[in-house]
Inverse folding.
């Protein structure tokens, strides 16, 4: 049997009377590139916030690496080997690019010099090393997204949750990021990928779950999903309303 | 006969205790009404602008002095002088927002707090230079008069008048916030500044109006307590902390919460002076403040639940 | 390394300064105030500047040190050093209570709660008997290991030592994991938490370090002045002066708080002792008998807080990063 790294078991999240995520279940296997897609307001980011410990779930369980994590704080989840990026990037603006990535690296070392070494490696791997001494706040959006990626990679995660990492990027930038993600997977990490843009997802994902209005609409391989009339309807419908 | 006498004594004693209790409760309610006004003022500013206004107490202090000078120089009754104080204070607050606060509306909130602290220091220390540190007392013909109700409970006339006026002003404020276009625009801005802006609401004007309103309410509260408190340049300090406690108790940014919070704090204060000691009443208030943060940080009427 | 060298050089200069200016108790007093405010603002800066958690009630920790020390010395004749350590313990307990209540929360709460805690401490000191109530505590005679503590010089070196230690801690924190974590918390709490930073733990750590240092300064100050009451060591105004010193110099930097103290304390001293008013009269710019002259003479001494207020407003509007920020230096 294949080992599930992440197991989402009947998870619901309500905000007051609003149901943001309703009874969702799926599992992510090791070394998968897993896509979580859906129109705006489908509940993708809410689900990410639940998984990464920022929101308590209303009901259900989240199991990561054989541990139930839905009562843990975000920093505890991070120490178990799950790291996330943010749809609206969150650079530590007045710190340098290098310092940003070092702060990620401090989750696996206490020594400043060691953290600096890890950070430099990660900056090289995403191609940001030339910007190491720049203030993180001054970077362009494309570079900020790369910085987010370098920063979470410096925590040496088993699993990466990427929230619209390609959003707002041009084609070349998207290609670079997707390339980095493939490399990371090949080194042994598992990737869960939220994306609004279907093309990016179908290009890279092994398995896709589609959310719509907080519920799971479908799951399958990219080919199955792109051929699914319900998914197409949800996307087109969402597109027309928006 | 003897036991009957004792019985009567006991009944009388019990009556005294009850009178004591209701006396304390009612005067707490009346003072609480005025606190509520100060709390509501701070809450409006917090709700619309998301700023903790540390000058709020000093604005109250200015209201006290305005009432004092209106009375001593112009011979206007302190309650009547509100007609003068409210528009003046509104204009003052509106200008302060336009000149100072609006420039830092997108700054980190620490800077906003420091700016209002700085403005407060300027106000209180200018008052200190202008009016000296000697406390002033506003004595009207009815300052120390009281009415007695239910045989035994005496209520101070100025406090009673203040309470009635507080209720009136709160009522008008509610009508303004819920019925007028400006009021609804203020409300919308407090719910979601960005969305309000997209809907075409001039949010920077709303901020100035909110700060003007907050200032007017603070000054009104100051004027209303002027006949029953010592008036001195540093009086704002105590009221600032009370206003914060009221806002946090009611839920930061909730106008109704601030109203209820003010009354609760008034009663708590009065009860702790009666049953504990007036030296410790402020300590009790601050312990309640910490208790709220510990057990119900969103306050009694808080709208910001999770996040 | 360069920074450590700067500390060493400045400390060296400061150490020989009393020998140069001679035995002027007045100037020694002003210098002690400068050193103390520099250390207070630096200690505050570890929490407020690095971690972005603005405490508006640091007087509580200063007062905790001052009161604990004075009570233990005056009532139990305890050794001043031991009573200083006791002060640290009391300050840390207050800090832990505050931190455990508010550091779970986001937003404006810490600032507000820090004032509430400081007021509870102040009012308690004012109303309890063992703290001397409104009369405060007076110390008639104190000595340590045969050193005469009636002279100001030992306190000058004491304050200098605490300042050097505080700056050393501030400096070593800057380049350590804790220092980076605190700065991450200041910049973005969500990002910090998602990178594995236990927000409450590190905020409490910063608060404890800051409170302990502040308490030591309170103990030292109390024994130096030999009289304390709530308005001297527990007042909200002290908390505000500490913040303003850090802000005006440059919040979040190692040297900003020191610069702030070097500029502001002498300024306040000049206003307080009416040097400026006298100078204006002496220069013949204002006649001593004119209305303005009389006003200046009588009131300028009270105006230093007003001046602080004006400087704060100007600083936030035009120099939000402080004077060091203006000079464009990060460290």
């Amino acid at each position: 049997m294949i080992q599930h790294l992440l197991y989402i078991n009947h998870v619901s999240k309500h905000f007051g009377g609003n149901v943001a995520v309703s009874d969702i279940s799926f599992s992510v296997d090791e070394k998968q590139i897993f896509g979580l897609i859906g129109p705006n307001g489908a509940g993708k980011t809410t689900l990410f916030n639940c998984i990464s410990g920022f929101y308590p779930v209303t009901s259900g369980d989240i199991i990561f690496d054989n541990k139930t994590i839905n009562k843990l704080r975000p920093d505890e989840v991070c120490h178990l080997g799950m790291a996330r990026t943010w749809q609206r990037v969150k650079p530590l603006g007045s710190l340098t690019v290098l310092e940003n990535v070092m702060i990620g690296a401090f989750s696996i070392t206490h020594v400043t010099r060691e953290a600096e070494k890890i950070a430099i490696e990660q900056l090289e791997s995403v191609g940001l090393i030339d910007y190491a001494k720049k203030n993180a706040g001054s970077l362009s959006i494309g570079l900020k997204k790369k910085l987010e990626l370098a920063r979470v990679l410096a925590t040496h995660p088993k699993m990466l949750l990427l929230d619209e990492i390609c959003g707002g990027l041009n084609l070349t930038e998207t290609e670079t990021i997707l390339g980095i993600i493939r490399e990371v997977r090949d080194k042994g990490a598992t990737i869960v990928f939220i994306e609004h843009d279907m093309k990016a997802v179908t290009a890279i994902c092994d398995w896709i779950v589609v959310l719509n209005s907080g519920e799971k609409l479908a799951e399958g391989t990219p080919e199955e999903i792109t051929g699914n009339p319900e998914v197409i309807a949800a996307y087109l419908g969402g597109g027309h309303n928006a | 006969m003897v036991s009957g006498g004792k019985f009567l004594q006991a009944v009388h004693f019990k009556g005294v205790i009850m009178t004591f209790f209701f006396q304390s409760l009612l005067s707490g309610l009346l003072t609480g009404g005025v606190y509520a006004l100060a709390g509501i003022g701070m809450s409006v500013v917090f709700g619309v602008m998301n700023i903790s206004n540390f000058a709020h107490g000093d604005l109250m202090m200015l209201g006290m002095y305005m009432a004092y000078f209106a009375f001593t120089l112009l011979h206007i009754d302190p309650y009547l002088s509100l007609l003068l104080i409210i528009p003046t204070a509104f204009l003052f607050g509106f200008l302060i927002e336009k000149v100072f606060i609006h420039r830092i509306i997108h700054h980190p909130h620490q800077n906003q707090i420091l700016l209002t602290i700085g403005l407060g220091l300027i106000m209180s220390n200018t008052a200190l230079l202008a009016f000296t540190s000697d406390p002033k007392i506003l004595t009207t013909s009815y300052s120390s008069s009281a009415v007695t109700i239910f045989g035994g409970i005496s209520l101070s006339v100025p406090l009673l008048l203040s309470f009635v006026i507080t209720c009136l002003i709160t009522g008008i404020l509610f009508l303004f916030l819920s019925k007028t276009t400006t009021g609804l625009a203020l409300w919308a801005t407090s719910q979601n500044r960005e969305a309000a802006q997209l809907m075409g609401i001039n949010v920077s004007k709303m901020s100035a109006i909110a700060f003007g309103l907050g200032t007017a309410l603070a000054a009104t509260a100051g004027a209303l307590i002027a006949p029953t408190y010592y008036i001195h340049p540093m009086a704002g300090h105590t009221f600032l902390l009370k206003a914060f406690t009221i806002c946090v108790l009611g839920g930061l940014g909730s106008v109704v919460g601030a109203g209820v919070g003010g009354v609760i704090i008034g009663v708590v204060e009065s009860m702790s002076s009666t049953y504990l000691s007036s030296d410790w009443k402020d300590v009790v208030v601050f312990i309640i403040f910490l208790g709220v943060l510990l057990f119900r940080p969103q306050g009694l009427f808080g709208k910001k639940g999770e996040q | 390394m360069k920074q450590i060298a700067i500390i060493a050089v400045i400390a060296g200069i400061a150490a020989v300064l009393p020998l140069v200016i001679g035995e002027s108790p007045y100037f020694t007093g002003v210098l002690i105030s400068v050193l103390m405010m520099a250390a207070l603002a630096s200690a505050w800066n570890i929490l407020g500047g690095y971690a972005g958690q603005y405490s508006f009630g640091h007087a509580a920790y200063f007062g905790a040190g001052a009161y604990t020390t004075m009570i233990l010395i005056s009532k139990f004749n305890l050794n001043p050093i031991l009573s200083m350590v006791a002060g640290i313990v009391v300050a840390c307990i207050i800090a832990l209570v505050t931190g455990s209540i508010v550091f779970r929360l986001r937003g404006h709460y810490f600032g507000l709660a820090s004032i509430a805690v400081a007021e509870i401490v102040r009012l308690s000191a004012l109303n309890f008997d063992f703290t001397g109530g409104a009369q405060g505590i007076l110390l008639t005679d104190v000595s340590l290991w045969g050193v005469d503590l009636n002279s100001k010089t030992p306190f000058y070196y004491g304050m200098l030592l605490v300042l050097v230690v505080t700056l050393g801690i501030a400096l070593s924190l800057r380049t350590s994991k804790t220092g980076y974590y605190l700065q991450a918390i200041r910049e973005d709490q969500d990002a910090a938490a998602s990178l594995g930073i236990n927000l409450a733990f590190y905020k409490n750590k910063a608060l404890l370090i800051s409170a302990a240092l502040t308490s030591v300064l309170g103990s030292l100050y109390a024994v130096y002045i030999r009289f304390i009451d709530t308005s001297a060591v527990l007042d909200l105004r002290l908390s505000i002066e500490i913040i303003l010193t850090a802000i005006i110099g440059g919040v979040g930097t190692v040297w900003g708080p020191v610069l702030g103290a070097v500029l502001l304390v002498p300024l306040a001293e000049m206003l307080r002792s009416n040097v400026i008013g006298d100078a204006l009269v002496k220069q013949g710019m204002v006649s001593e008998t004119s209305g303005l002259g009389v006003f200046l003479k009588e009131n300028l001494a009270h105006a230093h807080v007003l001046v602080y207020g004006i400087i704060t407003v100007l600083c936030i509007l035009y120099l939000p990063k402080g004077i060091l920020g203006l000079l464009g230096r990060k460290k």
Notes: The longest strand of chain B covers residues 146-149. The mean pLDDT of chain B is 86. The CA atoms of residues 173 and 183 of chain B lie 9 Å apart.
